[in-house]
Design brief:
The chain has about 550 residues and is of the alpha+beta class. It has a domain at about 260-360 and about 425-545: Gamma-glutamyltranspeptidase, large (L) subunit, C-terminal domain (Serum Albumin, Chain A, Domain 1, Orthogonal Bundle), CATH 1.10.246.130. Helices cover about 35% and strands about 20% of the residues. It is built from 21 helices and 21 strands. The strands form 5 sheets. The protein has a 7-stranded antiparallel beta sheet with strand order 1-20-19-15-14-9-8. The longest helix has 21 residues, at about 300-320. Residues about 355-360 have low confidence and may be disordered.
Length: about 550
């Protein structure tokens, strides 16, 4: 059973921080911040379902992790609801991302980008797309929830108005981005009181944000997209050189439809749909499925996965874009035949150096997973893109606004992801849900981390399905990251393979012998924040894991 301990588990010779997963029966939440996990579990204990708990947890994350996510960001999810659609259940993909400003031309972006006019304005008021998270929450609650927005927002409102004690990771992000935050008066007032970054152990209050969440709880998402909140955000953006308008906000819609999927080792892996780059993980799995993997941490397995990653990322760069502007050949890219064809391009003895990719940058995102006692499963990821997104707060709304336009688009002529007014950029955000060979949903998982996401998810899935590792052990494996990825932030750099130094030395040596340029990282500095929950479909028992590289927590009852 995937995610549960196996009698044929790969030998675990590497150091562990959390030796055991968590077991529960009635419900479980795995998240990257303790207050987020607590909020979700509270709703489950109060009789809410997994959707209610996920929205409650996500709203708290938007308050206590403003460097990672917020009402001004986007949301993607894969969820399964049992008993829907005639009793067979329903598995859907949720795409909550918005368009670029219709009133900002590509010439305007060139003029405000780098000095050579070759890069988008990475942060600031022109880097912002219409936020999709608020509407996505409302749509999820209306369609699948049992509680109102007001009910699930109570804890987030409390943490906004009363404040919460800042943890080291959040404080470090504020300090590391203080110079950029200082450029925006509204952001500086929140995160740099008296001109100094808040420190770990201090209380962060966001009273304006609390009022905004309370207004949404009373008036619905309508106020955020067509009402008072939208007016205040767009008016502020206009005053500081932004281009998003009320019309841009008013036309926003959340897309809920069929997820992408493939089959790996007999299990169906569901992923978020375009404009998410969930297709990368699925194509990479189709490529590595052409070999048996006995040990996911062997040099052979890592080499195979790294080379598969390079090929899948190249296909994403060359073929995937907003469906309103470009038809992505998903049927071909996700077919087993294409996986075999791309597998044939891999040299088992040598690292490829000629696959063109953009520059990878770390993502500032948060992921959470929730499962309830009735079998509903939520795999959800939300983000403002980079640390504090655009580093612009929407005036007196307290809403930290994303920089997805600045980070995601390219100015390269003819590129499928070239900037255009009113276009959605491709997203690094993606998350997954796995069903067993009988079609029963049994696991949800995901991680933040920009272009690291598909790679780390692939490692965890292989660890569980190929290596027999449980949900916690698969997260704690020594992690590797092939760099660069897909972010169009600069000219492609030579490939390098970043590996946590807990990796066995002989494996590292074998990878170097195949031509991989290895860069060793600290033993727990490989990036990401994996969260995983698995469910035994026969007994209903849950098992969960959380990433000890961050301040994550898995809770259940």
């Amino acid at each position: 059973m995937i995610g549960f301990p196996s009698a044929t588990t790969t030998d675990q010779t590497w150091a562990r921080r959390r030796p055991f997963p968590l077991y529960a029966e009635h419900g479980m939440v795995a998240a990257a911040h303790p207050l987020t996990a607590e909020a979700g579990l509270h709703v489950l204990r109060q009789g809410g379902n997994a959707i209610d708990a996920a929205v409650a947890a996500g709203l708290v994350a938007a308050v206590v992790m403003p460097e990672m996510c917020g009402l001004g960001g986007d949301l993607f999810a894969v969820i399964h609801m049992p008993g829907v659609r005639g009793g067979s259940g329903e598995t859907v993909s949720v795409q909550g991302s918005g368009i670029s400003p219709r009133g900002a031309s590509i010439e305007q972006m060139r003029a405000h980008g780098d000095e050579n006019g070759t890069q988008m304005p990475y942060q600031g008021p022109l880097s912002i797309s219409v936020p999709g998270m608020v509407d996505a929450y409302e749509q999820l609650l209306n369609r699948y929830g049992t509680k109102s927005f007001a009910e699930v927002a109570e804890t987030a409102i409390t943490h906004s108005r009363d404040g919460f004690i800042l943890q080291p990771l959040g404080a470090g992000s504020i300090a590391g981005n203080a110079n950029i935050l200082a450029r925006d008066a509204a952001a500086a007032a929140i995160f740099l009181p008296e001109g100094q970054p808040l420190q770990a152990g201090q209380r962060l209050r966001q009273e304006d944000l609390g009022r905004t969440i309370e207004t949404i709880a009373t008036d619905g998402a309508e106020t955020f997209y067509r009402g008072e909140i939208a007016k205040r955000i767009t008016a502020y953006l206009a005053s500081v050189g932004g281009a998003l308008t009320m019309d841009d906000f008013a036309d926003h819609e959340t897309d809920i439809g069929a997820p992408l999927q493939t089959v790996y080792r007999g299990h169906t892996v569901y992923q978020t749909a375009i404009p998410s780059q969930g297709l990368i993980l699925l194509e990479a799995l189709n490529i590595i499925a052409n070999e048996e993997i006995d040990d996911p941490l062997s040099a052979d397995a890592i080499h195979l996965m790294v080379e598969a990653k390079k090929l899948a990322y190249a296909d994403r760069l060359g073929h995937a874009a907003d469906a309103a502007f470009h038809q992505t050949p998903l049927e071909k890219l996700l077919s087993p035949e294409w996986g075999k064809q791309r597998y044939a391009d891999i040299d088992p003895s040598r690292s490829a150096t000629t696959v063109p990719l953009g520059q990878l940058q770390d993502g500032d995102t948060t992921y959470l997973s929730v499962t309830d006692g009735q079998g509903a499963m939520v795999s959800l990821i939300q983000s403002v893109s980079s640390a504090f997104g655009s580093c612009v707060v929407g005036g007196d709304t307290g809403v930290v606004l994303n920089n997805r336009v600045g980070r995601g688009f390219t100015l390269e002529e003819g590129h499928v992801n070239q900037y255009a007014p009113g276009k959605k950029t491709m997203h690094t955000l993606n998350c997954y849900l796995i069903a067993d060979p009988l079609g029963r949903p049994v696991l949800v998982g995901g991680t933040p981390g920009g272009d690291g996401q598909p790679q780390w998810n692939m490692q965890a899935i292989s660890g569980m399905l190929d290596g027999g590792l449980d949900a916690q052990a698969a997260i704690e494996m020594p992690r590797w990251t092939s760099w660069p990825g897909t972010d169009p932030a600069g000219i492609a750099n030579p490939f390098e393979l970043r590996i946590e130094d807990r990796m066995p030395a002989d494996v590292v040596a074998q990878l170097e012998a195949r031509g991989h340029l290895v860069r060793l990282q600290g033993g727990w500095n490989g990036g990401g924040s994996l969260q995983t929950i698995a469910r035994d479909p026969e007994t209903g028992v849950l098992i969960g894991g959380t990433d000890s590289r961050v301040e994550g927590m898995v809770l259940g009852f």
